[in-house]
Amino acid sequence: MTENQIDHICIGKRFRGSLEDVRVKRGADVASDHHLVIAILKLKLKKNWMGTATNRRTYNVVLLKDPHTRSEYKLNLANKVLQKQYEEEPHLNSLW
Questions:
Q1: Helix or strand or coil: residue 75?
Q2: Per the structure, how many domains does the chain have?
């Protein structure tokens, strides 16, 4: 009785290096002339680097310990918030 080799593994060129072992298990009887083929793959995943932020600003928060600087900062921050609300308000009135 002769048997031809008819069971194969197809793999693309990209993953050819990750194929570690291929074996044919002839003992698995599935009422067919094919045999069970088992392949072991080892994938190497790369890290997805987001990169470093180059435009990061560092703030000197030690200056906020000075009461005069702290009150000036709070005033500027409040003015920015009020200015933003004022700029958005005419747009909201036009929608009504």
A1: helix
A2: 2
